[in-house]
Amino acid sequence: MRVGRMQRDRLPSMEDEAQTYSLVVAYDGAPFFGFARQPGQLTVQGELEHALSTLLRRPVEVVCAGRTDAGVHARGQVVSFDAGMEEWAGRSLDSTLRSLNALTHDGISVRRLDQREKGFSARFDAKAREYRYFICNQPWAPVFAEAFSWHVKKPLDAEAMRAAADHLIGEHDFKSFCLAASAEGRRTMRRVDAITVTPCEAFGEELLCVTVVGNAFLHSMVRAIVGTLVCVGRGLRGPEWTREVLAARARTAAGENAPAKGLVLWNVVY
């Protein structure tokens, strides 16, 4: 579906026909009440729509690849919107990106502007979404990673967490891993393609990175998966427990929701 990155020195001229565009956006989720627009609240969608509406001098609505909750971050969020070609007249790609970044909150970084096939949807055309969750697994409190990780002091058994994650791979009913209220009356089958638990380091802090890749996710699903895996990593449950959690189809059967601040929407595949 991707048409390609616009030429760096120009945007389409007035003679070109209307198209669909996408933005790749990164943001620090801490200041925002989630991605989705909410009256009277600071949201990522509200900021992006304000910037685009100011730039194009008309109301603009965007569609995102994945709605993130309050406090959740993004490295590669994708949003799509429609615009008439004549609206870009006289603007270069670089100047447009500069304007969008100047018009949005400091916690948002608009990194790419791409022209797409007409009708492209950041949400419905996505083939996979990758989330990464960062756990600071050391006795002392993190400094540089504090705002972007969950501090778990007790050493975690990463091998047990990997064994527990294996039961979640494939297409399953993930109702146990979904916010209970949002699951009522809705289809809760989802496909998870991969879950990895790997050590990493950031600014000298020892971290565990839980990467979850799937076609789509339920409300708070990744945070519930991580919270459940941490229960296993702490030795509170065995790796087979995740199979039982799936079968229960009840949110109370799974572990706690991991804190929002450790979760990052890392990448979206089209």
Describe this structure in words.
- The structure is a single chain.
- With 270 residues, this protein is an alpha+beta fold.
- It has 6 helices and 11 strands.
- The protein has helices at residues 44-56, 93-103, 158-166, 180-183, 221-233, 241-248; strands spanning 2-5, 19-27, 63-64, 73-83, 108-116, 128-136, 150-151, 170-173, 189-202, 205-214, 263-269.
- Strands 1, 2, 3, 4, 5, 6, 7, 8, 9, 10 and 11 form an 11-stranded mixed β-sheet that branches.
- Helix 1 (44-56) crosses helix 2.
- It is globular, with a radius of gyration of 20 Å.
- Mean pLDDT is 92; it is low at 1-10.
What tags apply to this protein structure?
alpha+beta, 6 helices, eleven-stranded mixed β-sheet, 21% helix
Summarize the biggest pleated sheet.
11 strands, mixed
Secondary-structure element pattern, one letter each? EEHEEHEEEHEHEEHHE
Cα-based radius of gyration, to the nearest Å: 20 Å
Number of strands: 11
Number of helices: 6
Taken from the alpha-carbon principal axes, the silhouette is globular
Structural class comes to alpha+beta
Looking at how many chains there are and whether they match, the oligomeric state comes to single chain
Poorly predicted tracts of residues: 1-10
Strand content: 25-35%
Tell me the helix content: 10-25%
How far apart, in Å, are the first and last alpha carbons? 7 Å
Instruction: Round the mean pLDDT to the nearest integer and report it.
Output: 92
